[in-house]
Design goal:
The protein has helices at residues 12-23, 61-73, 96-124, 145-165, 183-190, 196-201, 211-221, and strands at 3-7, 27-32, 49-53, 78-81, 127-132, 170-177, 233-236. With 252 residues, it is α/β, with parallel strands linked by helices. The chain has a seven-stranded parallel β-sheet, with helices on both faces. It is globular.
């Protein structure tokens, strides 16, 4: 049985990824603060779900989580770094505390889990890591500078790790979702902080992604079907990054 660790896997894209892996017969360890939420979707596969309460900001969390998974199942085949937070604020008003919080969760947490999982993967000479980036890492994003900065950095450390481990059997890639209907995004829409019509209009496919669509990209990059793919960021964004930004003026 192949084994995956998913940080932030209790809900949203992480939970969708876990469900797809479980359908393929994997064992899945969920590292999340909210382990109670795992119960709502894991009943049918309880023997292959390992919920670990984890705060990715804790310096010992990554190593402890990976050690527990190896002690239970003897291996780590895939790490998905899905844990992430955001703090909205105009750039000039963003507090250092909020900046540091986002950096600690999104970037340092990702780095620590990559390092901890790789220690086990490199010993076995195989494994895959998929980090969750974002379209925000490649574009200017008002009022979310800390979030965008971490996602750009995740693209960078993905490449660095990928080339460093390429001859040692460990692949590292990232998935950069476009606008996705996660519970968090839905709350922003319902509260009026995000304009759903604007999201649709700026996405060429004119809709949001479902968590399952992003999960499919993650599962692909973590599978043997992607065995010659490393150091890449896959934009699962409905065409957002490809959009020129100016509507056609052609007339017959």
């Amino acid at each position: 049985m192949k084994v995956a660790i998913i940080t932030g896997g209790a809900g949203g894209i992480g939970a969708a990824t876990a469900r797809q892996l479980l359908e393929r017969g994997w064992g899945v360890a969920i590292a999340d603060l909210n382990v109670d939420a795992v119960e709502t979707w894991s009943n049918e596969s309880k023997d292959r779900v390992f919920a670990i309460q984890a705060d990715v900001r804790d310096k010992s969390c990554a190593a402890d989580t990976c050690d527990k998974v190896v002690a239970k199942w003897g291996r780590i085949d895939l790490l998905v770094n899905c844990a992430g937070v955001n703090r909205h604020s105009p750039f000039e008003k963003l507090s250092l505390e909020d900046w540091q919080f986002v950096i600690d969760v999104n970037l340092t947490g990702t780095f620590a889990f990559m390092q901890a999982a790789a220690i086990h993967m490199l010993k076995s000479g195989s494994g895959a890591i998929v980090n969750i980036s974002s379209i925000a890492g490649a574009r200017g994003v008002p009022d979310r500078c800390a979030y965008a900065a971490t996602k750009a950095a995740i693209d960078s450390i993905t490449k660095s790790a990928a080339v460093g481990w390429a001859t040692r059997g460990v692949r590292v890639n990232a998935v950069a979702p476009g606008f996705t209907e996660t519970p968090l995004v839905r709350r922003y829409i319902d509260s009026g902080n995000i304009d759903i019509d604007q999201l649709h209009s700026t996405t060429p496919m004119r809709r949001l992604a479902s968590p399952d669509e992003i999960a499919s990209a993650i599962v692909f990059l973590g599978s043997d079907a992607a065995s010659f793919i490393t150091g890449q960021t896959l934009y699962a964004d409905g065409g957002f990054m490809a959009e020129y930004g100016i509507p056609s003026t052609y007339k017959e």
